[in-house]
Amino acid sequence: MRLIAIGCVSLLVCATAAAQTDLGAAAAKERERRKALAASPSPAFTNDDLASEKQAAKEAAKEGGKPGEKPKPKPQPAPTPLPTATSDDSAQRRAQEAGWRARAQRARQVVDQTAARVTTLEQQVARVAGETMASTDTNQILRLRAQREALENQLKDAREASRIAVEQLANVEEEARRAGVPPGWIR
Fold this sequence. Notes:
Layout: H1 2-39, H2 47-62, H3 87-134, H4 138-179
């Protein structure tokens, strides 16, 4: 019994010593933090700062704004247009723009068409699957399973076509980027 009591007392003493060590480390960290705070100057506001705030509020009120809002920037004069190129250059540029726009539009149309085909086939597969589940006629179930299998094969092909169409659109965009075509031409 004495051995148990001595063991408990020694565990208690060790735990207390460990806790004091942790508290000592925490206290040292807190002292360092306070020293760092004391070393960095805190902002000081003077009456001059308040006066400039009042002046800004008055200016905002004159311009129709609310106090505390930043004043609206004054409109800048319109930039002067760049000198225009000769008519040959601009005609060629318009032709290039029309060509790139047409290529991008065709690629997007193919992407849209293939995506619509995938959606339609997915809906048909879901419809046939529902009919299969609802049917009790064995012959009809077998016919619907064959139909579903054919639709799933078409769906697989349509998904592949959609993936290829997306890649082709990305290729057109990458080719335009490499050619230095402005992004607005292919959007």
